[in-house]
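Box 3.1. Reading complex inputs
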Amino acid sequence: MIKFFLNRIAMIIPTFIGVTLLTFALIHLIPGDPVVLIAGERGITPERHAILRAELGLDKPIMVQYGRYVWGVLHGDLGKSIVTKQPVFKEFITLFPATVELSFFALILAVLFGIPAGVIAGVKRGSVFDHSVMGLSLTGYSMPIFWWALLMILFFSVFLHWTPVSGRLSALFWIDTDTGFMLIDALRSDEKGAFISALRHLILPSIVLGTIPLAVIARMTRSAMLEVLSEDYVRTARAKGLAPWRVIGIHALRNALIPVITVIGLQTGVLLAGAILTETIFAWPGVGKWIVESIRRRDYPSVQGGILLISSLIILVNLIVDMLYGVVNPRIRHTR
Amino acid sequence: MKLLKRLLILALVSAFLFAGANAYAKTCVYCSEGSPEGFNPSLYTAGTTFDACSRTLFDKLVHFERGTTKIIPGLAESWDVSADGLTYTFHLRKGVKVHKTKNFTPTRDFNADDVIFSFHRQWKKDHPYHQVSGGAYEYFNGMSMPDLLKAIEKVDDYTVKFALNRPEAPMIANLAMDFASIFSAEYADKMLAAGTPEKVDLEPVGTGPFILVDYQKDSIIRYVAHPDYWDGKAAIDKLVFAITPDPSVRYAKLKAGECHVMPYPNPADLAQMADDPDIKLLEQEGLNVGYLAFNTEKKPFDNAKVRVALNYAINKQAIIDAVFQKAGKIAKNPIPPTIWSYNEATKDYPYDPEKAKAMLAEAGFPNGFETDIWAMPVQRPYNPNARRMAEVIQADWAKVGVKAKIVTYEWGEYLKRSKDGEHQTVLLGWTGDNGDPDNFLAVLLGCDAVGGANRARWCYKPFEDLIQKAKVVSDAAERTKLYEQAQLVFKEQAPWVTIAHSIVYMPVRNEVMDYKIDPFGGHIFYGVDIKE
């Protein structure tokens, strides 16, 4: 077990080098010069252009720039944003709680509805419920997020006035955001109603962001259940006269969960990497929107740093998923 | 003891009352389109940033009257210009209170030191603040201030003298621009002593109508009205910028009553907005021009006849209908009608393909020729869809035998390559900075601007003489005449096809009173009230 983890951790090193090289190369390959973009139609004199590029370190050969960047990363310095002049790490940490909060609720929603729906669909294969779940999940999976979100906003917020349109908290509440997690900050503040407001603001974006993972999880659970339910040991358990819920809930589901956990792990990575469209539509100040904006402005340090941090998180989530396999299925724990 | 108890009760009751008053404070919520780059207007160039700082937190020596391009006194009550146009003396307003924030309590009112600090920081390379926060002062440099300024001196606490190297009539207008915002020198000194000079740019202290309370990145900016603002406290008590990048969502928020004012509506939503009983749709012509520039250094565009012919060949009304929908107006001059000296007498070239063909034949191109049209990859205020515009022009020109290929590049590349003159014809535009005609005519068409913002690379002596003369004359009537004449010369030589001035639409909720569209494209909330 320990050897396995040490192996996994050792594998992280080349992954990191790959990530730094790839992000660095890709963002520098896109045409566009941050200095020219800052100046816009106004233009800039060649002298001033040269000075600014030198200040940003962009006048050095590309390999030197890469070397400096990696050296900085090894020393825990991700550089400063070209646009805001703030340290990249500080910007990331400011925005990350919003992404985590949203991803967490979206994932909870997806798991809470996806797994039961998948289990029932699997058990009642061919029933009306099964066909509805499969149809709906296919629709959910293929729905354009942008359109789906606007539809929800128009119906629930503009027409019914049940939920707020966007943002994280009503503009009428003036609370301190020390932790960056709006629910926690709202709870800690003295303002009555702030917590409810924060919660209400989470509903629509969580549904929109959770739609695709929900569909994926429901379909995955269904197919895993179908496979497990046809196994000999399930038949044996049934033949022994076990209650149906024990057969399904304990014998079948536990084994069926292994591929489902893999999918949940992958989806967590996807969610944390920034729900770019959901964040943009709901004006949710998370990291996805920030990275896209940074790419548009050719803010090299922010793009490189942001992607590196997110990649680290995805690697971490994958490690956790590997450990969870062991917990759910003892066979994996013992064979390693 | 009894007295103490009573006092305590009184304190509690008043605290309760105060809290109650606070809850009913008048709040204006503005659904802004993006995040500010920072809170120091001299470091940045984006309008979004200016809305969040220079137009809320700061004052300048002179201001633009809200909703116009007219210059009015700001922190300077009055000013004198010497006869040779080289010295400007500003008499500063007394009793102007500086913001009190959670980190800073001013001990003095605004004075000449604040003016000197704000300009020297941008100008003097050895100033302790010059390098703070990256130290790139693009507007200060872009307006040629380093070449223009000879000295800025404090005569006394309430008098400042600006000495120039050459006369520059637009100088006063320059000082009303965002980069010329006045900071608190006392706060800057305090932060420098504390070793945190960057706080001046992150938690700014000015004298403007609003005080920054906090900024949650990419989410919300909060302000309260400055209680002692020299021009009177703002009618609203609190101002909130709810950052909402998507225009459809901004509109949904406006409809749901989550914000009072929104900028940049989708052109497709305008008709619905106009019919909405809860919304007022304000409109005004923008201070901008969208144009197609011919590269006059390249053949055949070095020939004015060819340029005029191609002017005749374009159906501008079709462009307004197809590209701008409702939000545009045909341009005949290189400056927008909201700027003084706009020449009403200029005659535009009407759409006349037959005449265009005849002129091309006269110029030696009876069968037309091949060329290119560069189209920007981005949406700009003066051109919502350059690609579509290029297609309309391409079709129009094909009718007179000119085959044009549409070319486009990434925005940065586009700006760079067109600056270097790689194009034959290029679509671009300009939004005015200071409401002075010089800011269009000299910046975009002057000889010094060839290789810079002069994309036509057009340097024409009769025109150049007029605009150079207008730069040094301080008499407004005489300047107007010179610029009017320059516009006629421009039209006759046709280095551009002037295409359109966009119309700015601003949907606001009915309860918003006295909102005025800023011709410079800013969003200004001092003077705005909310009906209860």
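In summary: The mean pLDDT of chain A is 86.
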